[in-house]
């Protein structure tokens, strides 16, 4: 998906063949799971120079917890630092994973705001996993606003 979206010259001529070979290597049940996951991952253009000025590599433990939450549909507690520097505690449901290269975002349901929010992963200070499951929600208004960032939403 990333190779297709950023029109990478590497592998682009053979991308469909590669996708088909990889897909056919899995049993049909796993192919369906992979397809559902792929529908939750979006890739946009490159991040702006403004965004890159403040970008830091996310912490490994934070990434691990977030990906676990995303793939296993479990809510997660996060401490988040906004662009203004305000720190807040949130319980989120990671609905979609979004890349504006090289910056990753989660489009989440935020219990504190009772609505969808976009969280830049490198601004997540810490995480605490929960065992509380969630279901995917319908794509809402934030998707419309995010179209500029993510061209295939």
How would you sum up this structure, described in words?
With 153 residues, this protein is α+β, with helices and mostly antiparallel strands. It contains six helices and six strands; from the N terminus they run H-H-H-E-H-H-E-E-E-E-E-H. It has helices spanning 2-5, 15-24, 28-38, 49-54, 60-72, 141-146, and strands spanning 41-43, 74-81, 87-100, 103-110, 115-120, 124-133. Strands 1, 2, 3, 4, 5 and 6 form a six-stranded mixed beta sheet that branches. The longest helix is centred in the middle third of the chain and has 13 residues, at 60-72. The protein is globular, with a radius of gyration of 16 Å. The mean pLDDT is 84.
Topology, element by element:
Blueprint: H1 2-5, H2 15-24, H3 28-38, E1 41-43, H4 49-54, H5 60-72, E2 74-81, E3 87-100, E4 103-110, E5 115-120, E6 124-133, H6 141-146
Parallel strand pairs: 1-3
Antiparallel strand pairs: 2-3, 2-6, 3-4, 4-5
Quick rundown:
With 153 residues, this protein is of the alpha+beta class.
Largest pleated sheet? 6 strands, mixed
Helix segment tally: 6
| Silhouette | globular
- Strand % is 25-35%
H/E topology pattern: HHHEHHEEEEEH
Mean pLDDT: 84
User: Which structural class do the helices and strands define?
Assistant: alpha+beta
Could you give the distance between the termini?
Answer: 13 Å
Report the strand count.
6
Poorly predicted residue ranges:
none
Helix % is 25-40%
Report the radius of gyration as a whole number of Å. 16 Å
């Amino acid at each position: 998906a990333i190779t297709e979206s950023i029109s990478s010259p590497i592998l682009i001529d053979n991308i469909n063949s590669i996708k088909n070979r990889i897909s056919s290597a899995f049993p049909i049940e796993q192919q369906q799971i992979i397809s559902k996951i792929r529908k939750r991952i979006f890739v946009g253009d490159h991040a702006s120079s403004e965004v890159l000025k403040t970008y830091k590599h996310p912490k490994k433990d934070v990434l691990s917890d977030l990906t676990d939450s995303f793939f296993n549909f479990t809510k997660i507690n996060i401490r988040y630092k906004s662009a203004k520097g305000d720190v807040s505690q949130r319980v989120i449901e990671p609905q979609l994973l979004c890349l504006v290269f090289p910056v990753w975002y989660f489009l989440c349901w935020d219990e504190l705001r009772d609505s969808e929010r976009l969280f830049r992963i490198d601004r997540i200070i810490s995480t605490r996993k929960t065992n509380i499951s969630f279901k995917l929600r319908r794509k809402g208004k934030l998707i419309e606003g995010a179209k500029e960032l993510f061209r295939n939403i």
